[in-house]
């Protein structure tokens, strides 16, 4: 009798281990991301409040109506700075969601319980992508929407083209998640993270090189930025979002370090969508052919 009890317990432990490790690991990543996101919104809101109150009081006393205009310009810069940080956090969340999804389940054996059922492999990949896209939509709404809402509640300032800007920020996180999912179909989770963050870093540097090139009219630097955007268009999406939301005065004078002087065209946005679709199709194709 004791032998059978030990056997049942042992089998129960075996059933638990391989399936729950990747699941709990992924849940932990999401929890950390959510906690860090809420912490960021809290710090940003408090910091914005202190800066705004001080700037508004000084502007009202010293320069009157012109001071109010300058305060609004400053508010726009602070809002873009907050959204710039949100863009990075959203991209990191997208990378973490996709990095260990397929490779982790293949290594642990969890995927075997899914693909042995009458379910197409393509449906597995597309289902995961759709689930992550919904999660990212909620996260992006919380972070981007929370930043813009905090600025509006505290200052009454509403940026132009907010909806277009926030959608572009979401599209960037969706692009990073899709690339991560695609890499996860043939690389380990660690390798996927290295590749995705490496590409994101290259895009970040390329975007700044293009910005500096536009300021100094250096065509070589501008071309370097364009080529980088063709390799991975994530930074181009942010720069277009910043262009949509920056104030006309800041845009004309180039006052904001978080605005943009070299504006990606709508064609580049279309290319980013095409890039996303190709990356998703690649994930499906590679996973269909992979030995499990």
Gist of the model:
The protein is mainly α and 292 residues long.
Structural write-up:
There is one protein chain. The chain has helices at 2-62, 64-99, 101-108, 112-115, 121-155, 162-184, 189-215, 219-231, 234-245, 248-253, 266-289. The chain is mainly α. It has one domain. Helix 6 crosses helix 7 (189-215). The model is unreliable at 1-24 (pLDDT under 50).
Element-by-element helix/strand order: HHHHHHHHHHH
Helix amount, in percent? over 70%
Instruction: State the domain count.
Output: 1
Largest sheet: none
Strand content: under 5%
Q: Give me the number of helical elements.
A: 11
Q: What characteristic shape results from the CA principal axes?
A: globular
Using the CA coordinates, give the radius of gyration.
23 Å
Number of strands: 0
Mean pLDDT figure? 84
SS class: mainly alpha
Spatial gap, N to C terminus: 38 Å
Low-confidence stretches: 1-24
Blueprint (SSEs and pairs):
Blueprint: H1 2-62, H2 64-99, H3 101-108, H4 112-115, H5 121-155, H6 162-184, H7 189-215, H8 219-231, H9 234-245, H10 248-253, H11 266-289
Helix pairs in contact: 1-2, 1-3, 1-5, 2-5, 2-6, 2-7, 5-6, 5-11, 6-7, 6-9, 6-11, 7-8, 7-9
